[in-house]
Amino acid sequence: MLTRHRKELLLARLRQDGQIVAKSLSEELGLSEDTIRRDLRDLASEGLLQRVHGGALPASPALGNFAERQQISGDAKPAIARAAAAMIAPGQVVFIDGGTTAVQLARALPQDLQCTVVTHSPSVAVELAGHPLMEVILIGGRLFKHSIVTMGPSALEAIAQIRTDIYFMGVCSLHPDSGISTGDFDEAGVKRAISNMAQRTVVLASPEKLDTASPYQIAPLSQVSAIVVTRDAPEALLARYRTMGIDVVKA
């Protein structure tokens, strides 16, 4: 079988099954595992899938820059934001992540909501500047331009001093096996630190992020209390999250 044909077959199988197990596929096709793994490495380098131990998972389309991500799931993100906003009770201390869905969440918060919002996203902080009853704490540090958030030692030090009721996390990928993940090593560490300081971690999951993987794991799904998805998200995708004890909130 020609290399091109093998790769087309691998991508077709990934679309069909949602994952590739190298050992099983090599036995089915009568090819060596080394050949399958080499093809998977090539496809991963082209951004067409994400390598994981033993095979591959779909790559998240949410790995593009901030401007590109604003064009993805444009209708879904405001709906997810409204559902997430309804989860905040007066008087709570909440952490709102960076990213395009997080900005929509900030826009969805009522003007008369009295709470404290902590964020390392300048974009989120600016959205909340006009809320008269809301205390806004902006974490400083080096600006990570991909997600328009601050990172680095000073950001981590500040995060470690604030316990929050809810952390609304934005991710590139969410998968029952590989957990929650993103495309930058340092960003994964910052998100993990924020989650560790929160009583509840709620993942904002627009449709393209479900059942995909990105290079750097933030945490296993046991760290997640709830995910907010669109109303039309397929039940077949959501069932495994429910069986893991995660609340699934449909927007």
> Oligomerization state of this entry?
single chain
Gross morphology is elongated
Assign the CATH topology of the largest domain: Rossmann fold
Query: How many beta-strand runs?
Result: 15
Low-pLDDT stretches: 66-73
Order of helices and strands: HEHHEEHHEHEHEEEHEEEHEEEHE
What is the structural class?
alpha/beta
Give, in spatial order, the strands making up the sheet with the most strands: 6-5-4-9-12-14-15
Q: Name the CATH architecture of the largest domain.
A: 3-Layer(aba) Sandwich
Strand proportion:
15-25%
The average pLDDT value, as a whole number, equals 89
The largest pleated sheet is described as: 7 strands, parallel
Distance from first to last alpha carbon: 46 Å
- What is the C-level CATH assignment of the largest domain? Alpha Beta
Number of helices: 10
Helix content: 25-40%
* Count of the separate structural domains: 2
Radius of gyration: 19 Å
Pfam families: DeoRC (PF00455), HTH_DeoR (PF08220)
InterPro entries: Carb_Metab_HTH_regulators (IPR050313), DeoR-like_C (IPR014036), DeoR_HTH (IPR001034), NagB/RpiA_transferase-like (IPR037171), Tscrpt_reg_HTH_DeoR_CS (IPR018356), WH-like_DNA-bd_sf (IPR036388), WH_DNA-bd_sf (IPR036390)
Protein name: DeoR family transcriptional regulator
Keywords: DNA-binding, Repressor, Transcription, Transcription regulation
Textual characterization of the structure:
With 251 residues, the chain is α/β, with parallel strands linked by helices. It folds into two domains: 3-59, Orthogonal Bundle (Arc Repressor Mutant, subunit A), CATH 1.10.10.10; 66-250, Rossmann fold (3-Layer(aba) Sandwich), CATH 3.40.50.1360. The chain has ten helices and 15 strands. The strands form four sheets. It has a seven-stranded parallel β-sheet with strand order 6-5-4-9-12-14-15, with helices on both faces. A three-stranded antiparallel β-sheet has the order 1-3-2. The protein has a three-stranded antiparallel β-sheet with strand order 10-11-13. It starts with a helix and ends with a strand. The model is unreliable at 66-73 (pLDDT under 50). This is DeoR family transcriptional regulator. Keywords: DNA-binding, Repressor, Transcription, Transcription regulation. Residues 3-58 form the HTH deoR-type domain.
